[in-house]
Amino acid sequence: MSSIKKIFPFIRPYKKYVYLNIFFNVFYALFSAVSFVALIPMLSVLFKEDNKITTKPVFEGIEHFGDYVENIMGYYITHFNETEGPQYTLLVMITLIITLFLLKNLCNYWAMYFITFLRNGVLRDIRNAMYKKSVELPISYFSEKRKGDVISRMTSDVLEIQHSFLSVLELIVREPLTILFTIGAMFFISVKLTLFVFIFIPISGFIISKVGKSLKKKSDKAAIEQGYFLSIIEETLSGLKVIKGFNSEKVFQGKFTNSTDRFFHLNNKILNRQNLSSPLSEFLGILIIAVLLVYGGSMVLVEGTLSGAKFIGYMGLAYNILTPAKAISKASYGVKKGEAAAERILEILEQENPIQSKKDAVHKSTFESGITLENINFRYEEENVLKNFSLTVPKGKTVALVGQSGSGKSTIANLLTRFYDVNEGKIIIDNVDIKDMDLHSLRGLMGLVTQDSILFNDTIKANIALGKLDASDEEIIEALKIANAYEFVKDLPDGIYANVGDSGNKLSGGQKQRLSIARAVLKNPPIMILDEATSALDTESERLVQQALENMMQNRTSVVIAHRLSTIQKADMIVVMQKGEIVEQGTHDELLAKSGTYSKLVTMQSFE
């Protein structure tokens, strides 16, 4: 239950609905018991068992409350029988019973009505919290997790929590109160018979609890398996071209089928174990009633210590315990499943985020002098990707990073934006360590254009306006013109309101990249980071994109990570990297004159 308890803070905003639910559940439980007790005088009239009481009884204290209630009912039955006749008395009793059952069901409806707001509110708030946490967590977290598993936690596991909360509230309020009031009424009718029932209730409870012992473990396995096949779906839809191109449909179908088969078998075990709870608790309840029929029957027929009407009413009350007992049994299984789901949800919600702003973080809205990287060491796992790396990028200058794949170029972009934190050393902007800066303001100073043109399934305007949500159509068009993108956007039927499709798949690679540049242009940041922005383009697209980049980089501080050296010849400084270290630096002409590593890279690319 510890995991479920940690979800309780999500209930606080809806506590008024909890109180209203409890309020109506109390009355539901009360009317549930009283409605069966009210059957006794009606049966007495039918079987003519009522003892005539002609004098109105006087209340003699709480210890005689049971006798008083029985006598006062006997008095009014006698009165109505003598003045109005037995048929009229029966109609009155039936009306009373109908009213009690109506009140019971109205209270049931209102209890469920108010808990609906709680359930759906908790569902919404947990999902919102999980999404917020997922967005805040560092990129490194998702490189280790399957996306499908995160989606599964945010959908199925949260739904499981929603159902578990309903079960918990029934478990701790409604059903126990129904049982409590019913047992109270049973004591009122016969103490001896009720004490006899108590011998069997703990036995049946023990058997039911034994059945549900392994449910939590199996629920956890099923949730993990669901996350796995959701990941396969996500990977399949993302890489459909590759799958079809390599005729790998059967390979992925096999992986998916194997996963859904495992999920099928796990779910069968869980649901069959859960389904056993209801018939098991009902059978045990009927077993208790059978024993009552034997023992209670002897009290009516042999001993004469209990009237027939009271015994039938008592049996109705005994059966009334079965429904809440079944519900508690089901709810206890629901709680076990909910606890497994809560653990998976809390794993994300309680995940520590190492990359976040300090409490007294520096807020910066301007860029004044430059960027300095001091003796940086960084590793993704065990081996250093950057080794004692130092570099200065003065304001207004363009610095290009070149080198073979795996030399650490893109890592610099990840560190400047604080997608990752350095292990040793410092990154300083205007004499302020970026770890001391507010994360939002740090990224506000930067524009990022990556090799993968990431566009969202929305309009061109919505994609470009990410960094400036209040941008006008004129500002969007101006940014498109600077990025050499307006030439194709203006020819689209809906112009800037055209939808780009999932991941921008309605556009070519060059068109997507120019929209990414337009997005950075509109944001208008003082620092621009270009991570191999032209490496995946054809020659014509590269020329247009390169021209767009040059337009954008005017009067800005730029860090350009380049694979194609033709794109960075105009850079103020070119830094040549090898295995996480700087081996050369200078202008294009200076590096060519050295005839070193850079010169070899240029020569190799000129033959490509």
Structure explained in plain terms:
One of its GO terms (molecular function) is ATP binding. It is found in: Cell membrane. Residues 371-604 form the ABC transporter domain. With 608 residues, this protein is of the alpha/beta class. Among the domains are: 2-13 and 113-349, Up-down Bundle (ABC transporter transmembrane region fold), CATH 1.20.1560.10; 357-445 and 570-608, Rossmann fold. 63% of the residues lie in helices and 10% in strands. The chain is built from 23 helices and 10 strands. The strands form 2 sheets. Strands 6-7-8-3-9-10 form a 6-stranded mixed beta sheet, sandwiched between helices. Strand 7 (527-531), helix 21 (539-553) and strand 8 (557-561) form a beta-alpha-beta unit. The chain is elongated, with a radius of gyration of 37 Å. It starts with a helix and ends with a helix.
Q: How far is it from the N-terminal to the C-terminal residue, by CA? A: 64 Å
CATH superfamily of the domain at 2-13 and 113-349: ABC transporter type 1, transmembrane domain
Using DSSP, what is the number of strands? 10
CATH topology of the domain at 2-13 and 113-349: ABC transporter transmembrane region fold
Query: What top-tier CATH class of the domain at 2-13 and 113-349 fits best?
Result: Mainly Alpha
Estimated helix fraction: 55-70%
Mean pLDDT over the residues: 79
- Ranges with pLDDT <50 over ≥5 residues? none
* Radius of gyration, whole Å: 37 Å
Q: Please outline the major beta sheet.
A: 6 strands, mixed
Please give the CATH architecture of the domain at 2-13 and 113-349: Up-down Bundle
Shape: elongated
Q: Note the beta-strand portion.
A: 5-15%
- Output the number of helix runs: 23
GO molecular function, one term: ATP binding
Membrane topology: Multi-pass membrane protein
Keywords: ATP-binding, Membrane, Nucleotide-binding, Transmembrane, Transmembrane helix
Pfam families: ABC_membrane (PF00664), ABC_tran (PF00005)
